[in-house]
Design goal:
The structure holds 2 protein chains of 2 kinds. By secondary structure, chain A is an alpha+beta fold. Chain A is built from 2 helices and 6 strands. Chain A has a 4-stranded antiparallel sheet, with helices on one face. In chain A, strands 3-4 form a two-stranded antiparallel sheet. The two termini of chain A are about 20 Å apart. Chain B contains 15 helices and no strands. Chain B is about 75% helix and about 0% strand. Classes of the chains: A alpha+beta, B mainly alpha. Chains A and B meet through loops of A and helix 11, helix 14 and helix 15 of B.
C-alpha cells in the first residue's frame, strides 16, 4: 500500500481557545481537525476538567509541513505567553493525501 | 445550617481528604442546565402574574447596580492590593456579575425560613449576569498599561456573554414560563419545581469538590484572598440590601438582592474574561470567586445578609 508523508500538529490548550484555534487553523490552510476533551497537568498545576473554567482540549491537524509550521508559529506567538498550551509536531503517513 | 449546604461541605471534605469521589462531567453539565432552567421557569411563571410596568423601574436600578459594583472593586484592588490593571479588572468583572447557584441556595434558605420574597427575582439574576462583566473588561482594557495587549473584539465577546449557557437558559426559562403561565407549566412541576432542592443538593456536592480544589490557588496571597473574598461580598451585600430597601422590596427580597450583589460569577465571567483579558491571572480571580466567596456566601453569607436585611428593613 502506498503511503504519503504529512505532518501531525497537536495542540493541547485551554478549552476557552477552541473556537479561535479552529477558526485560525482553517484560515491558515488546515483542511480538517479533530478535537477531544482531555485533562492533565503541568508546571503550574493540574487542569482537572471538573468545571467549565478548568477544561482542556487536544486538537489534532494533519496537513502539509508548511501549513503545520504556520499554524504552530501563530499559536506560539498569540497564545503561549498567557495561556496553558502544549504544542508539538510529528511525522505521519497518510493513505489519501488529497484529504489533508 | 441549611441541609443543602451540608452536601457542599461533604464534597469539600471528600476533595481535601483526597477521596476518589468524582461526579461525571456530563452529570455536572446536566445538573447545571437543570438548575438554570428551573430558576428561569419559576421566575417566568411569576412574572406572568405581575405587570411589567411595576417591575421595569426595579429592573433598571438592578442593572445600574451591576454596572457600578466593579467600579467600587477596581480601585480597591488597584490601590490596596496593588494588582495590575488586567487582574484588577478581571476580578472586578467576576464580582460585578453573579453566581446563580448562590442565588439557588438563597431561595432554598428563605423557603426553609418561610420568608416570602418577590417571586420575579430570577429576572434580576439574568439582568445582573452581563453588566458587571462588560464594565470589568472595560476597566482592564483602559489606559496605557494594556497598550501592548490586543484590543477587545467586542463582536465575539458580546456573543460569548449574551449567548453563554447561563443567560440563554435563564432568559429562555423565564420566557417559556411567562408564555406558559401557571396552568401551562403545571405538567412540568414535578420535574422542575418539586425536585429542585434534591438536584441542588447533588450539584452542591460537586461544587464542594470543585471549590476545595481551588485551595491551591490561595497559597501565594492567602491573606489578601481571604480578606477580599469575604469583606468585599459583605460590603456589596450591604449595597444590595440598601438598594432593595430603596426599591421597596420585602425583607426576603432585600436579602436576595444583597446575596446577588455579594456573589461572584464563576461560569459566565471566567469564560468571557479568559479571552478578553488574556494577561489576567485566572488562578487569582477563580481562587477568589470559587475558593473563597462562593463557600463563604452559602455557608455564612446568606444568614448574615438576612440578619442585616431584617435590621435595616
Amino acid at each position: 500500500m502506498q503511503t504519503h508523508p504529512k505532518k501531525l500538529l497537536v495542540i493541547i490548550a485551554e478549552a476557552a481557545l477552541e473556537k479561535l484555534l479552529v477558526k485560525e487553523a482553517r484560515h491558515l490552510g488546515a483542511h480538517g481537525y479533530t478535537v477531544a476533551e482531555v485533562h492533565g497537568g503541568g508546571a503550574t498545576g493540574a487542569r482537572d476538567a471538573d468545571w467549565e473554567g478548568n477544561r482542556s482540549i487536544r486538537m489534532e491537524v494533519i496537513c502539509d509541513e508548511a501549513v503545520a509550521q504556520s499554524i504552530a508559529e501563530h499559536v506560539l506567538n498569540s497564545y503561549c505567553k498567557n495561556y496553558s498550551v502544549s504544542i508539538f509536531l510529528a511525522d505521519v503517513e497518510v493513505l489519501r493525501p488529497g484529504k489533508f | 445550617m441549611d441541609p443543602v449546604v451540608l452536601f457542599f461541605l461533604l464534597g469539600a471534605f471528600a476533595r481535601i481528604a483526597k477521596s476518589d469521589l468524582r461526579l461525571p462531567e456530563a452529570l455536572y453539565e446536566t445538573l447545571s442546565i437543570y438548575l438554570l432552567l428551573a430558576i428561569g421557569l419559576k421566575g417566568g411563571v411569576e412574572i406572568a402574574k405581575h405587570s411589567l410596568g411595576a417591575v421595569a423601574p426595579q429592573a433598571i436600578a438592578v442593572i445600574a447596580m451591576g454596572a457600578m459594583l466593579p467600579l467600587i472593586a477596581f480601585p480597591i484592588l488597584r490601590i490596596f492590593a496593588k494588582l495590575a490593571r488586567a487582574d484588577a479588572g478581571n476580578i472586578a468583572a467576576h464580582y460585578g456579575s453573579v453566581s446563580v447557584v448562590t442565588f439557588a441556595v438563597g431561595i432554598a434558605f428563605l423557603a426553609r425560613q418561610q420568608v416570602p420574597y418577590e417571586s420575579y427575582f430570577p429576572l434580576f439574576v439574568a439582568l445582573l449576569e452581563v453588566p458587571g462583566i462588560v464594565v470589568g473588561i472595560l476597566l482592564a482594557k483602559m489606559g496605557r498599561e494594556s497598550a501592548e495587549g490586543k484590543p477587545v473584539q467586542w463582536g465575539p465577546l458580546s456573543h460569548e456573554v449574551l449567548l453563554g449557557k447561563s443567560v440563554v437558559l435563564l432568559v429562555g426559562g423565564i420566557i417559556i414560563g411567562w408564555i406558559a403561565g401557571p396552568q401551562g407549566i403545571d405538567p412540568f412541576k414535578g420535574l422542575f419545581f418539586d425536585l429542585f432542592r434534591g438536584v441542588l443538593a447533588l450539584f452542591l456536592l460537586e461544587m464542594g469538590l470543585v471549590a476545595a480544589g481551588r485551595i491551591a490557588d490561595l497559597k501565594s496571597r492567602w491573606l489578601f484572598m481571604l480578606g477580599f473574598g469575604t469583606l468585599m461580598p459583605i460590603c456589596f451585600a450591604v449595597i444590595g440590601i440598601l438598594l432593595g430597601k430603596m426599591l421597596g422590596l420585602s425583607v426576603g427580597g432585600m436579602t436576595l438582592l444583597g446575596l446577588l450583589a455579594g456573589s461572584a460569577s464563576y461560569i459566565a465571567a471566567p469564560t468571557a474574561t479568559r479571552i478578553a483579558i488574556p494577561e489576567a491571572n485566572p488562578g487569582l480571580s477563580i481562587g477568589l470567586a470559587l475558593g473563597v466567596t462562593f463557600p463563604f456566601n452559602i455557608t455564612l453569607g446568606v444568614a448574615l445578609y438576612h440578619a442585616i436585611a431584617q435590621r435595616l428593613a
